[in-house]
Amino acid sequence: MVADVYRKLAQQLDAIPNGLPATESGVELRILARIFTPEEAALATVMRLTLEPAAEIAVRSGMEVNTTYRTLKGMVRKGLIRFKKGEGGLAFGLMPFAVGIYEEQLPRMDAELATLLEQYYQETRGNIFLDEPSIHRVIPIEKAISFELEIFPYERATELLKGAKSWGVRDCICRVQQRLVGRGCDHEVENCLLFAPLEGAFNASDVTRAITKEEALRLLLDAEEAGLVHSTSNHCSPL
Fold it and tell me: How many CB atoms lie within 10 A of CB 94?
């Protein structure tokens, strides 16, 4: 019964364009069991990408509204779902496995999870990152947006940072995961930059360290001098 709920969740996540391809070994089920409790997994299976209040999710799940709300808030803290605060209160939505759930497991990444993820990556040959449509292209409902994954020269990357109103940095989860399985590179771990058009966007984050514009520019320069390539992607919420 418990395995069934993780299988159902895996199928739900694989139905999202980013996907979560099944493997012969079923390692993806062990990954989900590692980061979702059975109750959280069951709730996620009835969630949608569009943001909804807890009461609507509770109707589909058959759970009591207050229990649903508490569980959803716990899932937000674990980086399993996304949320937004509106006039009517909090609304919650499902996230893709990547880019989404995977990246938010940085605080919980350990050798066991890293090993499971490496096995999954090897079994799928990285197809979660290569499938069509591209993982870095998001199309909102009934509204197409132009998008390219761009590789930026240092000068253009600097312009992007200078145009933001808040800045943050977090550890590169790929480097963290690779080092836990005895692989990886020797580059600095803390150099994934985030920036936003709103002030204080990262002040309350437990994962992203809020920094100043000057520190962001210094980290960018350090990456440039280390020979790293600057790339960026956008992520849009469904309408």
Answer: 24
